[in-house]
Write a structure and sequence with these properties.
Helix content is 14%, strand content 30%. It is of the alpha+beta class. Strands 7, 8, 9, 11, 12 and 13 form a six-stranded antiparallel sheet that branches. A four-stranded mixed sheet has the order 19-15-14-22, with no helix packed on it. It has four domains: 283 residues, no CATH class; 116 residues, Immunoglobulins (Immunoglobulin-like, Sandwich); 111 residues, Immunoglobulin-like (Sandwich), CATH 2.60.40.10; 110 residues, Immunoglobulins (Immunoglobulin-like), CATH 2.60.40.
Length: 658
């Protein structure tokens, strides 16, 4: 048997799979010569399904197979102590083993542990064979098989079948195996160059663990390199395949249809002749070879069909997402594509194919094409675009529907390489975003004062966007509408900003509420969304009266004495766009006995638009005692409260002791 040395390190990439049951029939039954197809022993997608079995399933399989061979005693049980009668004479199995240098106890494959042999070299690694304790660092046979399958993207069922067809015993079903049966269990690096075409095994590859890993590595190497121009071994297409190592037995042309079949013929370069096929479970004639026949027969018997439904429909390139930026935004156009090939020599039906997606867990598909056909040896590119209108987590995947396979996204069209992407997840950022929230100028406005309201939006997309109408809406103390101006057809350029800025005045004092609002078919307070939580989308403002006392009572000198002239001042500010007449103003005073000692009254006080008025009058106090000074206004009635104060720091009344 030809076993080529691995020449390159194989990088095994993760690929999703639902297991072989998803794409081929698992009907297990005896096969006949009429079922055999020399050019299609096994399909690529089945051969490379590394997730067909997990470790526990491999272990359960090994448990079930021990004792089911030709000389098995009790299915599932290992004759550890060799108590059964030897099939080869010489008493019990224990006695026969001792006479051959392999005394009991025996260790069956289901119970076997070995320290992995990582690199080629002399010697056989430590194991628990013969009832010894499991060595430190040892791994079970099931684990070693699974490890190799995962590393090289080879179906663990393929490795189990290869053990059965290559090992003495065979090891998989033997319930009293000798230690030597583990040494070259896979026939890896055992070319048929020994006497009489016998296996000539390389001792550097002795040991169950390295046999498993090297077998998987070789198969992967064949698959990865048979398309290279220097490849001189078996590959898809017409090949001359011998019937036997004895070239005198002849050969015939075989049109190899799958890479996996070519890999098997490279590993074991012979095909069964008609006598071997006619006696499928026995021997043929002197020119018969059985390796590939046995592989196909055992796989079918154990695991079902080696051919997949539409096995020739395969991915040739994985899913590629094209985005205008590394961080796409709402309103960006995303494009997703992948390529499918038909590896057969006839036109074939793929089914429906598309690019499906989920945005924040909800359906958000890009597009789908029903009833796709691919010509013989042809390729088809599946491409769909979508303008994104929602922010969040976008999951995109290649999807398909076939009448016999149903909806499929993780395994069909098939990927024999195991390294082509079928899906991707990206974050789509919102756009446009409010980058500066509601702002009023002045921040503490008064009635009659012109107020400017602003907010700023930023478009993070590479495309311009029209958000409809934008307004900073307002509600007065009675809940009445006091909006700033509505701006219609707000268009924000790609990567640009838009600043809303509108003015108005208010006529009523009290608490007002202002908020960002948008109309784009419906009114909403939530769109556009905020850049972050610190953005002020709603603002409550106490609308002040007008005019306002901006500077309260001051005296000069600040601590006058009897008969000294005293000047009293205060300042009133008008924030409106028109002059205002507030009537008469005075800084009133009451003496020690409550008598009126006011400063002079000023009548018809007119404060200019956006201007101020400063009251400043002098007088002399002639009596000692406590005086109370306060701001007073006459405008049809005397009031101590009008005009109101700009804020709580304004001094409207003071006590003076002379």
């Amino acid at each position: 048997m030809f076993k080529r040395t691995l020449l390159a390190t194989i990088a095994c990439l993760f690929v999703l799979s639902l297991g072989a049951a998803s794409y081929h029939k698992d009907k297990v039954s005896a096969v006949t010569a009429s079922d055999w197809k020399a050019g299609r022993i096994i399909d690529d997608v089945i051969f490379t399904d590394k997730n067909a079995l997990n470790v526990d399933q491999i272990q359960a399989f090994l448990n079930s197979k021990v004792g089911t061979g030709s000389y098995g005693r009790i299915a599932g049980q290992c004759d550890v102590n060799g108590v059964a009668t030897s099939e080869y004479g010489g008493g019990t199995r224990a006695q026969y083993g001792a006479s051959r240098g392999n005394p009991a106890p025996f260790t069956c494959l289901k119970d076997y542990y070995e320290v992995p042999k990582i690199n080629p070299g002399p010697g056989v690694p430590a194991s628990n064979y013969g009832g010894v304790a499991i060595p430190a660092g040892a791994r079970s046979a099931a684990q070693l098989i699974w490890d190799a399958a995962q590393r090289y993207n080879i179906n663990p069922k393929v490795l189990l079948v290869t053990i059965q067809k290559e090992s003495a015993g065979p090891l998989t079903t033997d319930d009293w195996p000798f230690r030597s049966q583990y040494t070259y269990a896979m026939g890896a690096h055992c070319p048929d160059s020994g006497p009489g075409g016998s296996a000539n095994c390389d001792p550097d590859y002795a040991g169950f663990s390295i046999q498993i890993s090297e077998s998987a590595a070789l198969l992967r190497w064949y698959l990865d390199n048979m398309s290279q121009p220097w490849w001189s071994y078996k590959k898809p297409g017409n090949n001359s395949i011998l019937y036997n190592p004895n070239t005198g037995c002849g050969s015939s042309n075989v049109n190899i249809e799958t890479m996996a079949t070519a890999a098997l013929y490279t590993y074991t370069p012979y095909q069964p002749n008609q006598p071997a096929l006619d006696n499928m479970y026995g021997l043929g004639d002197g020119c018969s070879a059985y390796g590939n026949r046995n592989f196909w027969r055992i796989y079918n018997d154990w695991f079902g069909s080696t051919t997949a439904i539409n096995g020739n429909i395969q991915l040739s390139t994985g899913l590629v997402l094209t985005s205008p930026s590394t961080t796409p935004s709402v309103n960006d156009v995303l494009s997703a594509s992948y390529e499918i090939k038909n590896t057969s020599s006839f036109d074939d039906y793929v089914g429906g194919v598309g690019v499906c997606a989920r945005m924040n867990g909800q359906n958000y598909d890009f597009g789908f094409t029903d009833h796709q056909y691919i010509p013989a040896n042809g390729k088809v590119t599946v491409t769909f675009q979508k303008r994104i209108d929602v922010a969040g987590t976008l999951f995109i995947f290649a999807c398909s529907y076939h009448p016999m396979l149903g909806w499929a996204s993780t395994y069909y069209p098939y990927d024999p390489t195991g390294n082509l992407s079928r899906q991707t997840t990206i974050q789509v950022q919102d756009s446009p975003l409010v980058t500066s929230g509601v702002s009023l100028s002045p921040a503490n406005p008064a009635i009659g004062q012109e107020v400017t309201a602003t907010t700023t939006l930023r478009n993070t997309s590479v495309n311009a966007i029209n958000i409809g109408s934008l307004v900073i809406a307002g509600r007065d103390p009675s809940g009445q509408n006091t909006d700033f101006g509505i701006v219609n057809d707000v268009n924000i350029p790609a990567g640009g900003t838009y600043s809303y800025s509108q003015k108005r005045t208010f006529a009523k004092t009290g608490n007002y509420s202002f908020f960002i609002a948008n109309w784009n078919g419906v009114w909403t307070r939530d769109y556009p969304h905020s850049l972050n939580a610190s953005i002020i989308r709603q603002l409550s403002v106490a609308m002040l009266d007008n005019p306002l006392v901006s500077a309260g009572i001051t005296l000069s000198p600040t601590t006058p004495v009897i008969n000294q002239p005293v000047t009293a001042t205060m300042t009133i500010r008008n924030v409106s766009a028109t002059p205002v007449n507030i009537g008469s103003m005075v800084i009133a005073a009451r003496g020690p006995s409550g008598q009126n000692t006011d400063f002079a009254i000023v009548n018809d006080v007119i404060i200019p638009a956006n201007g101020t008025y400063t009251y400043s009058k002098s007088q002399t106090f002639t009596a000692a005692g406590n005086y109370t000074l306060f701001i007073a206004n006459w405008n049809g009635v005397w009031s101590k409260d009008y005009p109101k104060s700009l804020d709580s720091t304004v001094l409207r009344q003071l006590n003076l002791t002379l």
